[in-house]
Amino acid sequence: MVYALLVLLAVGFTSKISLRHFGLIEDASTHFYGSFQNALYAKALYDVAKACLSSYDFQTCHKQAFVDGIYRGAYELFETNDSYRVEIWVLHQNPRNLHIIRNFLTKKIKKVQNATP
Asked: What is the C-alpha separation between 16 and 44, in angstroms, rounded?
């Protein structure tokens, strides 16, 4: 009877440790995937800001936001002397553990001078 109880406790303890270990591996891999996706969305938002400034004026392109499923993001432009500062943020909720994965990025876009006579 005592041996059966010890075996049962050993099996339960081993199961608990292995499930926790494999759960942590899953969390790490989904976090890495979410961070990678956030970086791709941030790059896409930078490209959108750059394309908007090449077609429209600063007031039209000042801010934009998007929601795509579990991804949310936006950019905001700030005007400086010879360039625009672009601040980008992207949020992603990890569906496995419901943690919010954040990505913040600041880049510059040079102003293009029109060559009109």
From this structure: 42
Cβ–Cβ contacts within 10 Å for residue 114, how many?
A: 4
* DSSP codes of every residue in the chain: -HHHHHHHHHHHHHHHHHHHHHHHHHHHHHHHHHHHHHHHHHHHHHHHHHHHHHHS-HHHHSEEEEEETTEEEEEEEEE-SSEEEEEEEEEEE-TTT-PEEEEEEEEEEEPPPP---
Nearest 5 degrees, angle CA 21-CA 19-CA 38? 60
DSSP track, 55-66:
HS-HHHHSEEEE
Residue with tokens 């801010």: 63
Enter the pTM of the model.
Answer: 0.73
pLDDT tens digit string along 68-104? 888 899 999 999 888 899 999 999 888 777 888 899 9
- CA distance linking residue 16 with residue 33, whole number of Å: 26
